[in-house]
Please model this.
Amino acid sequence: MKQAQRVLSTYAVDMFGIASSLYELGGLIVMHDASGCNSTYDTHDEPRSYDTQSMVYISGLNEIDTIQGNDQRLIDDIAEAAEAARPYFIAIGGSPMPNAIGTDFKAIQRLVADRTGLPTLGFRTDGIHSYLPGAGGAYVWLAKQFVKPASKKPELPAKRVNLLGLTPLDFSVVGNATTLKQIVTDAGFTIQSSWSMGDTLEGLSTAADADVNVVVSSTAFYLAQYLRDTYGIPYVVGIPMGEKGTADWLEALRKGDSSYVTGLTGDEEYVKAQYALADLNAWKTEQAYDDTPCDVLVIGEPVYLRSMKAFLEAEMGVEKVRLLCPLSDAPQWLLKDMEVASVEAVIRQECRKARRVIADPIYARLLPDEPDKFISMPHEAYSGRHYHDDMPIFVGPSFTAWMKDKLK
Amino acid sequence: MRKFAIYGKGGIGKSTTTANVSAALASIGKKVVQIGCDPKADSTLNLLHGEPVMPVMDYYRQYTEGPDFEHIGREGYGGVFCIETGGPTPGLGCAGRGIIATFDLIDELEVFEKLSPDVVMYDVLGDVVCGGFSAPIRDGYADEIFIVTSGEKMALYAAANIFKAVENFKSRGYAQVKGLILNRRNVDDEYETVKAFADEHGLPIVADIPRSKEIQYYENKGMTVVEGDPELPVSRIYRDLAQRLLEV
Model:
């Protein structure tokens, strides 16, 4: 029962990652699953569904088709929907049942592409892993499919920037994305492309002309590595948080400094997203971590964690910051030097050791007698729309004042 | 890199044939990886002098996580790298899914990139009972299929079923059947019967392996006949088959 979540929630799964990363790009997104309604996937973790039309569908997988491994109905339905909706591309991903029977999404990709003539992604998600490798795989596919050859070589100091990994799952729709873009353009950069809020397929197709890629969530670390290997574009990992954090982040962009908040060299070996999805042990069970207390424990996604640590240390004067990532299927290069745990008892223990905990408010349920210990930072990929109203703008200089107030 | 999948009725001699072909390929200097895709996990036993490699599914059961590169397989006769998928406890779980999980691990550990084999041999359970057992012939795995059969009615029936299943998968980009391997059981008119079947399906017979007590003799010693006595006529037949596979 170690893996039972009694008070905690689960993160948006791999298929959510695909749906979220492709949401605005005019593709038909099909989740191969039993549900007849896509609200469980779409509405709860997709705030854009309120005001932006989507083409996210569920296949309505039934028991007899599962038993018989009948993919034909799925293919026929997709072909019919594509005929009516005329999407730019089709993306199909799976859920636990197709995964259990070993559905061949690569074959479905081939059959759908042959039938519709449209670029098609068949990605073997299983509804068990997190949104990180799901979105990660979708981004790399998009790049391989649509990015045009570069018309220029990347140059430093950088001027043209690709924003990679920008989805509501990590940034919501409360103004973080807009602020991020504003910071970039106010500093004199040109946004070459934005993966994938507020851009089009045509915009993304020019990404090879950028001077630097900035990875703002680990959903796009795979993409950054792919673009580095294919077009020689360096990457910087991090979110601009606070006054100094924003200045440092912009400086790292100019220099194409991959070591910024990560200590990476930028030459790390490319690791495929599907390897994370194939890991049968995505839920780590037992870990023994440093038993000493810390000033602040931060829980969340790795790029956010690293950026928050730099911010807390440099601007808030916090000496001992510990990071805990419950997403063990995040890119392994980004998980170095942080704790990885998804089991309630382990996370509760880590929270006990900390004087303050910065995390999604659901984590406060772990220590109901210590509500003041927790600083609420709602994470769309974790608590969905539940705490929308409490979401701060954590991007940019204004975050300094917000956090100072919380840490009083 | 050539990648072959060996199919056929249960008990027809797929593992014996595969292991001897692997040994024969190794004896002419080829680097070979043999992957047993059967819960019984006995495909590579005769390449390992009877000391079995721990099947991947057994490793998961024992350690709750997959093996690393050092533990996923082991070198046997002639440097043949032996991997067994294994499977769940009989009567439980899903053996086909176990094959897929093993293949995922082989990809993730970049086994082929690290070993750079000339040939990969997939030795697959007799009946393609579910999606998992078609995994070895999916896009990216084996490119060519050979079916082992005798002249017995049920062996040919199974061969016909495998052929039909593979034909149905053509549009999926799966591997295609490239030939039959006749493994004799000494039934009447055996060659003629199998030849008629082969002609009907437009397939060549790439080897005619006689029933041989020497095969059994060396298997009892935990080795292939190709290793045990390379000069025997049946060993020469396996070497010819290995050569033929490379030429098909």
Summary: The beta strands of chain B are 2-8, 32-37, 74-75, 81-84, 119-124, 144-149, 176-183, 205-209. Residues 212 and 234 of chain B are 7 Å apart (CA to CA).
